[in-house]
Amino acid sequence: MLKYILKRLLMALGTLWVIATLTFFLMHALPNDPFTDPKLKPEVKQALRVKYGLDKPLSEQYIIYMKNIAKGDLGTSIKYPGRSVSDMIKQSFPKSFALGWRALIIAVVFGIFFGVVAALNHQKFLDYLSIIIAIIGVSIPSIILGPILAYLFGVQLGWFPVTVDKTQWSLILPSITLALSSLATISRLMRTTTLEVLGQDYISTAKSKGLSRYQIVWKHVLRNAIMPVITVLGPLFAALITGSIVVEKIFAVAGLGEYFVSTITEQDYPMIMGITIFYAALIILSILIVDIIYGFIDPRLRIAGKGGK
Amino acid sequence: MTNMQLDQSDFTHVGKNLKAAGEIKRPSLSYWKDVYRRLKNNKVVVVSFFILIILIIMSIIGPIITKSLYGHTYEKQNLAEQNQTPIMSNARSITLISNDVFKYEEYIPNYRKSKIKFKNVQLKSAGKLGFKIGNQADESWQGDKKEYELVIDVVNTDTWVSIVDKLNAEGERLLAQDPDFRGIEFAKKGSNLIIETKGEKWFNKTHWFGTDEFGRDLFTRLWEGGRISFFIAFISVFVTAIFGILYGGISGYMGGKVDDILMRVVEILMTVPDMLYTILLLTVMDPGIKPISIVLIVTGWMGTARIVRGEVMRLKHSEYVVAAKTLGADSKRIILKHLIPNTMGPIIVDMTMMIPKMIFAEAFLSFIGLGVPVPYASWGSLANQGAKIFRQFPHQLLVPAIAISLTMFAFNLLGDGLRDALDPRLRK
Amino acid sequence: MKLKKQWAMLLAVVIVLGVALTACGKKEDTQTVGEAGQQTEQNGASDYEGEKVLDYYLSSEPQTLDPQQMWGQPDIQVENMFMEGLMRFGKDDSSLEPGVAKGYTYDEATNTYTFELREDAKWADGTPVTADDFFFAWRLAIDTSGAYSFLIADYIEGAADYAAYDKVAFLTEKDANFEKLNEEEQGARIEAMTEEELNAFQAKKDELWKNVKAVAEGNTISITLAVPAPYFPNLTAFAVYAPVKEEFYNEQSAANKYGIEAEGLLANGPWKVAEWVHKDYFKLVKNENYWNKDNIHIDVINMKIVNDVETRTNLLKTGVLDGSAIQSKDVPDFEDVAILDELNLQPMINRSDFSIFYVDFNHFDNPITQNANIRKALMYAMDRTSFVEKINIGDRPALAIVPEDFPGLEKTFREENEMELFEDNNKEKAKEYLAAGLKELGMTELPTLDLLIGDGDIDQKVAEKFQADWKEIGINVNLVPLPWAERLTRLQNGDFGMSASGWGPDYPDAMTFLELFESVNPNNNGRYNNPGYDKLIQAAKTERDAQTRIQYLYEAEKILIEDAVVAPMYFRNVHFTFKNYVTGVVIRGVGATTDFYWADIDMNAKNIEKQK
Q: Which residue in chain C has the smallest CA separation from B129?
């Protein structure tokens, strides 16, 4: 197992390198440049280009950049002059993360619950109810859900603060907003896999053995049906903790998502590169962790995995 | 009933009929026929299917209907008819402009402010109490640009009864002066002051679903938006699915080195944040439907590929595939008869979930200003616009939101039905 | 703590009373106004001893708080709170308040301004603010090519020469071959400069700096201007002119904190930055070393960073903020006294923010928009009035270039040079111009024109409105929303017909708008090139007589309209509202838009409301 993890980590480093290279050249392929403020005079812009090394040939810039990354230096931002990219990530990521893990828990707990309930009541009222909830989850994107929740529960009813402050209470609305679409995805997936498991022979065996419904669901159905859900958890987790620009904007969260979008549109190369690499590392790591967990839970995969992975 | 007599002569011996026993009474069902039969018997699926058909047909003919009846197009503006609702009322709005007289705990206006309520009012002091009735900005409702001022002086000896009387008398006077005023009624019920203007209500015959901020017909824009949203969603889901199935299928079936390489590529592409591709692609192409579809395909196919691969990997080692192999089935037969039908479930669930995702990915692009360029509409951009003014004009959010939700429900239920029908294990 | 309890008690009594009063509603109907008035009368609020805390917002994370580098609105907003230049922005758009300088005198003969520094002006660390702090800052601004350093380089005599002399100039002087090198080789050569060369370069720079006509004498600073600029004292209130303490700068720059973390900010203004949590909030506290601290009433200013306008409105409505700007679609809501009363807000402040939005035409690479008649057709077809009445409620139609209320010579510029320079929404005239234009172009129908627009919400609305207007006279316009960086590339390549642009003033003089269309101006997006116009602007820039100078400006503006150089769309208005317990807030159009210098807050009233 340890050898497997080491191998995966090594591969992850390779992947990161490919991504960094890819992003670097993609970004520089654009015909724009970051110093577009109309109030900057041309000579000032030229001076800035020199300052950030953008006047050098691309290959040279690439080598310099890669050297710096190897040293753990992601450079300084262009949009926020002087500020180190790694510091900015360090400051804002925890805020995205605080929302992200809460959202993940909401999504997983309720998603699994709704999915299983739906499957156990296949084509009955509860099934349709959970479909309705799931569909509302996917059909109302956070762009619409966020403002409505903020207005309804924040302004009209006054139950929650309308923006994130230092209290735990204030994290509830944005976490729900963030969680809903993942919740729906998980519940749909869970419903499908549970139905599949319910049709398996070993469930019939368990039934004929006289196990109670509760025991069957707990011991056999859930454990088997949850497998595919675990595979999507990696990317899902990464997507949730990297922050969502929509939720961050609506609830005034000082997270990473908004930085990312605004720096892409403003071509702040060091920031884009820094955040992309950071995101990529997060995603790779969470997939790796999920794979390891998966390997522990599902013994079949360990055997099959030798050929596939 | 009780004294029914059964006699042996009532029965005859038909003897053994081996031929009949060997006959197949029910027509033999191929796999797909069986799927169809089961789909047909599932009422939910049938209803969903018809809802989808109706939505699609309306998207095609909706704009044509209103164009031929009223000459509406998705881009034709008429600011004099802005923000109309399906049910219209020409009651004028009430705005408090000066108040020395009373305090209150809460102020509750209705959407159009034609009825307002002050909760728990308390007298404060003598002075002016004034309202503005009507608003020239509401031209599209009240039918004119008129505004009226209703002001009374309250003195120390006044009571609530006399104040309300004074207000009503002033209202009567304004109505007598100009019948266009349409009347107003002040009432104090318990501790609440309730004010309501009078007017007629009618169904909006020219704009069935109302209008937007620019006075454009929402009915027309909804179906015009449907065209674009369906087009974008279908095209991108279709291409995504094809590509994802091929890629994932190959990767999963071949396994080994090929799988390793293909999956590494997917992993790399998936780890680069979508936003990066999106903005890069949209900056090199002119905004429109084509780049949006491409963006959605580029950012969407990896997920499908992974799911397909996972399924194929799982099934490849399942007993019946192994059994089929030992019985001498070739690759083609295994793929067509075993792998595809059995991976269909997750793929269909994935696809049905992807259509709403595509519709909303487009909405997200609108949110960051890179969606379908104005004045074109898509359901996503309509909902997005509506969400910005849902407090003032909820119908502008509700109309596209209902259309979207209906589509989602239909697709999801249809997908579920399909999944159940396709799954041989659920055969009854 | 004790105080809080007392308030809670009082509140409880009020609530009980309220409930008792409302419980007997019947009685109330026959109660007279006079009686009720007596009952509700309360004793005046007792004096408040604690800290006065104001809760406000900032529209986005400042990019930098280094005064010499900043250019964004939120940056300038904060800078005005913790820094102070020779002068401060006054209560209205053109007036000034004394800052580090007590005042100034002007010598017309030498075009010299003399500022008298006050002795009690101190940094937050207690050390005095000296003339050298200013000179260091100004030189720093030029050396580091700050965005607004041209406000120094273009005005102070000798500063332009200093700014122009860079390493390239140095090497060209030294080495005749240098000029022949290509850009890359030049760059390599600059990097390879020896220590000796660097020292020589530095010596030359020092020498040039000595020629800059900003001198300290005793406690005065005399600044001789290179050009006539009646508005120069206003410039000294801008961030780029703020002083910098050299020692602190060197120390914090080395730690990579200067201007980017709270520790890297040394205040000399009314407040100092106590906390700066990036993208989240600011906490400013009163600067005890500020010379005028006795007249600063607010002790603590909390500013939450909120990007989304809707969120800001929510915060205002839930009582988290003590005031906020109001977006256009909410203006009708906040005009309603009932809503203002319910939220305990003052009537809205409604004023111009001195921004104009207009359509730029391609004047160099597009035969259609190069045709004046076509441009006029487009300009006259636009219905600005209904746009500001129905879509962007509260803004003003732009029928000239310089915004309404912008200061002119004696009155506002608009009052002096006619309120409207052309007629809004004249479709007939537009059609005539279109016909004439088509004839000149030898076309029967105009091809579809591209209008580049921003990706913001309002950009799109504006464009949608005018697109419909243009269609009415038979011009089809295709809208191309693009992120700003991409749009600029297209503008530079001439890959456009029209582009929606906007401009806000850099200094309180109409020149800031009119010089935009000089052929050499980098922000002349359409590259309008009219030698007559250039001559007029140059004449205004060198004219010392204020009366003659402003006449040139009047004329220049008229040329822009007659030539339909751009098609003006609208002047933006801003709307603000504050809680009733906040007084004395100044909202202005140039510089820091919201100023709490004179503000006060009734904490008793605020606390009562908070407890509700």
A: C337
